[in-house]
Amino acid sequence: MSSSHDTLLLFNYDWDRAGFARQADGAAFDEAGFDLFSFPSNARLAFFDMERFVAGLARRAETAGWRAVVSNHEQFGALCAALLAERMGWPGTAPAAVVACQHKLHARRVLQAVCPEANVPFGLIDARYGGPVPEGLPYPVFVKPVKAAFSVLARQVASRAELHAHTRFGAGERWVIEHLVEPFDRVARRCLPEAGTAHRLMWERPAVAAQFNLDGFVWQGRAQAIGVVDSIMYPGTQAFMRFDYPSRLPPAVQARALDVAGRFLAAAGFEHGLFNMEFFYDAASERLTVIEFNPRLASQLADLYLRVDGVDPYAMAIALAHGRDPAALPRLAPTAGAASSFVFRSFDVADRVTAPSATQRARFAEAFADGFLLDFAKSGKSLARDYKWLGSHRYGVMHLGGADRADLKARCREACAILGWPMPYADAVGEHVDSAAWPLGQASPQGVRP
Q: How far apart are CA 58 and CA 62, in angstroms?
């Protein structure tokens, strides 16, 4: 058995803080890392080095009594946890496998070798951040960094002029981008030199189809599914509006996605750990294509499985970190027949977005004992970067469950009235499309990460 005293959590905040708290048996886990979005914590980005950070943790491990390490943090945590587990001889994902998944250009190459039918045309944009845009790209293209998180700079562009405008950065923006990528690039140069530098952009052919997430784990080299969550967009945008569980995707398509995941992960050397993969599915053509690979739990989706299935991915993460089969964990009693992660966004910099007041929070907590609420209000340069890099500002996320989809939607309406936020359903933003009946074959723009 393990306890919070022998498990180290890295970069633990937001959904992870709540999810791991359920596993703590009344005692706090040991933690390390910093919040990239909170000052002064994020000032550490200026001098952060993954391998130096991991070496310091390794020196503390024996005295602290740690026997396992866990992180679902995309930017730094997942790779740091893999490096520390390797160094200490603990169960964990191989660092080279984490790099293979997070290096988006290399991941496309691996997929092309083992599962080309699930790939899209792609290529390298031969220019550093802010450098001259090359000629000859097959516009329109979907452009994204070779290594990034939170959809930073991921966008469809229609012309060379649009791409040029998208990649012009001020000195402060360039500093942030380079310091987000460089810690990963140092490790990648050692673990997977054939991948090439991550300080680059790449292009992919845009896809028009419904999106979904496959969450799962690999135990003793075998990929197994936790579940599939549907991704619903704000109409006419590249921004997520909602994540719905259970999925409406046919079981046969879900099985195909797991087969693709298994082949890719085996080729990438991913033999142990949680994973998340994002897919497109076009019902009309039955074409299934991969969006990207994430070598860690999708934290935002985890409690949807807990609510509907009684399966807690955070308990699975702890089990895997201690070398135990997560499939052997007992299930809890489900609390809902349907659940969603609702995402609240502003698309206009002139919008005045405010966080819920203390009174509104108290009313929400009283009305929705099962509710989970986060707000991400920003201002100044940080807010301006959101609109420039992402095309929108995500100012809040709310999780709720319901007896069924109709009950969930009614509860969402009541909660939004309390918070003063708009309903995250298509018929609430100008298009009379009830998401409960949203067909999987309906066109949806290539999207951005939560």
A: 8
